[in-house]
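Project outcomes to date are best conveyed with an example. Our students and postdoctoral researchers have been running inverse folding experiments weekly, and each run begins with a structure described purely in C-alpha cells. The record below, which covers 203 residues, was selected by the lab manager from last quarter's runs and is presented without edits.
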C-alpha cells in the first residue's frame, strides 16, 4: 500500500491538525508514504518516499529512480532541514512556514505595532484581517490576526507595485481598496525594511 500524504507534516501543530502526518501513515502500516520536501516540511522542492526498507529498496531499483532523483545541492538542503526536526521546538522557530503558522497573537500584535509605528501614524493603521495560507499545502486554511493597512492616496494597485519594486521587494495584498502588510510573513529583523519600503511607496 502506498499513501500519498502530500504536504509532509512532521510535527504536531494546532494549525495542522487536519493535515495527515507522515508518522501516522507509517504507523498505520503503509509500505510507502509519499510527500513533498517543500510545502509544510519547509525544505527544498523535492519528493520523498518513506516506508519499509524492502519497499524503499524496490523503488530505488526502479529504472525511473535515477531520472527523478534530486541533485546534491537539494539533497544537502533537505538534510539540513530534516536535522532541524530532531528538536521540534527548534524546527518551529527556524523553519519559516512553521513559524508563520504557529505565530501567537501577542507576537503578531507586537510586530504589527512596531511596523505601524515605523511607517507613521497617519500613513498606516492596524486592522483585523484574514490571511489565507493557500498554495498546494493548505488552500482553505484561514488565519485571523492583525495587519497593517497603508493609507495611500494612490490606487492600491500602484502602491502594491511600488512595494514590489523596493529593495528588497515587499509583497502586500489588497483588501477593500487598501494594501495590507501581514506581520505573520515578516520576521522581526525585517520590520524595518518593510517599513522603509512602505514609506517610499506612500511617498
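After processing, the design step wrote out the following sequence:
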Amino acid at each position: 500500500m502506498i499513501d500519498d500524504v502530500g504536504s509532509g507534516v512532521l510535527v504536531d501543530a494546532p494549525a495542522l491538525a487536519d493535515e495527515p502526518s507522515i508518522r501516522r501513515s507509517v504507523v498505520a502500516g503503509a509500505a510507502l508514504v509519499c510527500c513533498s520536501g517543500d510545502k509544510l516540511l519547509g525544505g527544498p522542492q523535492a519528493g520523498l518516499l518513506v516506508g519499509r526498507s524492502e519497499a524503499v529498496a524496490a523503488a530505488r531499483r526502479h529504472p525511473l529512480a535515477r531520472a527523478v532523483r534530486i541533485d546534491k545541492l537539494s539533497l544537502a538542503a533537505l538534510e539540513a532541514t530534516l536535522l532541524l526536526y530532531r528538536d521540534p521546538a527548534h524546527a518551529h522557530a527556524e523553519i519559516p512556514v512553521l513559524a508563520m503558522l504557529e505565530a501567537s497573537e501577542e507576537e503578531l500584535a507586537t510586530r504589527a505595532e512596531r511596523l505601524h509605528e515605523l511607517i507613521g501614524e497617519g500613513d498606516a493603521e492596524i486592522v483585523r484581517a484574514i490571511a489565507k495560507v493557500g498554495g498546494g499545502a493548505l488552500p482553505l486554511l484561514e488565519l485571523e490576526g492583525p495587519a497593517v493597512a497603508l493609507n495611500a492616496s494612490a490606487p492600491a494597485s500602484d502602491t502594491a507595485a511600488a512595494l514590489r519594486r523596493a529593495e528588497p521587494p515587499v509583497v502586500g495584498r489588497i483588501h477593500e481598496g487598501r494594501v495590507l502588510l501581514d506581520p505573520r510573513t515578516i520576521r522581526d529583523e525585517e520590520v524595518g525594511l518593510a517599513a522603509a519600503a512602505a514609506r517610499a511607496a506612500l511617498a
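The chain has two domains: 2-98, 103-202. Strands lie at 2-6, 32-36, 47-51, 124-134, 138-150, 173-175, 178-181. The training component of this project remains on track.
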